[in-house]
Structures are given as C-alpha cells and as structure tokens.
Amino acid sequence: MADPLQRIPGTGWLALIGGGEFSFGETEDADRTWLEKAPPGPVGFIPAASGSNDYPRHFAEYMAGFEREVEIIPIYRSRDGRRARNAERIRDVAAVYLGGGVTDHLLEAIEDTPAAEALARKIADGGVVVAIAAAAQCAGRFARSIFKGDLIPGFGWLPEGVVEPNFDPGHDRRLRKMLAGTGVSWGLGLPAGSAVLLGPEGVVELVGEVFRIEGAEGDVEAV
Q1: How far apart are the C-alpha atoms of 48 and 139, rounded to whole Å?
Q2: Which of 12, 64, 131, 222 is most buried, by CB atoms within 10 Å?
Q3: Complete domains list, the chain, with CATH
Q4: Sheet containing 161-165: which strands, arranged edge to edge?
Q5: What was the pLDDT predicted at 3?
Q6: Interacting residues of 61 by C-beta distance below 8 A, sequence separation 6+
Q7: Whole-prediction pTM value?
Q8: What is the band of 23 on the pLDDT scale with cuts at 50, 70, 90?
Q9: Taking Cα atoms as reference points, which of 50, 94, 88 lies closest to residue 70?
C-alpha cells in the first residue's frame, strides 16, 4: 500500500480481525494468513475479554486443525495481568491471540500491567499478536465502552488510529464518533471475517474487504 497504516514499531506482526465465528470457518482465511507469519511454537490464548472457560477450549480444538498447540494464558482480571508468570507466558509463545468479548473487560485486565508490556514487546521483537472483534478495537488509541458508549483509552498499538469491528460501511456512525477522540486521525472498519495485518517497515496485508476513514468528516473508502 502507498499509504501504510501506522502501528507501533517492531519486527513482528499485529493482526486485527473484524469478527466472525471460527467454528463456522468464518475466520479461516484470516487465521491461515497470520499463522503463516508466526514462528514455530504454541499459540497463547488470552480469554480476558469474554471470561469464558469454553472459548479457549474450542479455540484449541480449532487450532489443532492447523497443527498448532494452544497454551491458555490465564488472564481474566487485572491481578492476572500483573502476574510476572503471565508476562513470561506471553514472551515464550510464538503468537498471542486475544479473544473477543467486551472491550472494558480486556482493558481492565491488561492495560498498564506487565502483560500489556509483554504484548507490545511481542510486536516489537518479531512475534505475532492477533486480536479479534472487541479485542481488535482495543488495539487502537481509543476503544468504546460497552457500558456507556464513552471512549476509553485503548492499548495504543495504533497511535493515531481506531478500529470498528463487525463493520458495515453503510452504518459508519459509531466509527465516526470514535474519530472524535483526541489525537485520532484515521479509523479502520473491519467487517466480520476481514483482517488487516500490519508488519515490519509499514508492510500491510489485507484479508477480505477493509475500510478506512480519514478524519471524522472523511469518506468511507476501501483500503
């Protein structure tokens, strides 16, 4: 792409998936693409956004079809995010997958913890971090609270960008509201099953349709 989407620097990959049910094959193309970037070794799964015990088990069964082992990284609350052992788990796996659920739950469990630092280092040092649906929104400068709809600080892996998962280009109001956040200059709209993979030196790979808006009054354009 001539106009790359800026993310934090590093030699790794950040993969953002708009949503979809992996059990129905809706994310298979996206998952094959990021798995090709991941070094050998297990995929770490962080369930904080959903809090579900079943989600990690189903994900492990799904990854077995790609001949990848899954290690559950047991982060559900902020005290889990602060545990040094969980930061070490993030460091040691080949890739980390942040499951979908609720933005607030994920941010409360990880933001400003050693786990957040370990995830940023993963992107910096050649690993892969994958985030789907609500977790993908948390990658931006801001996310939207599910409880009040207010903007809340995200992880900032896209320093000037925000993400709207499960995006419908005909209904862009929620993404435009996020563009009103201080310091935000662009927004990504990711329909279910679509993905954007942000690699080293500005490399961008797309799976399916991905949309972008420059500024709150800009046009919705296909990337």
Answers
A1: 14
A2: 131
A3: 13-216 (3.40.50.880)
A4: 161-165, 186-190, 211-214, 221-222
A5: 52
A6: none
A7: 0.95
A8: confident
A9: 94
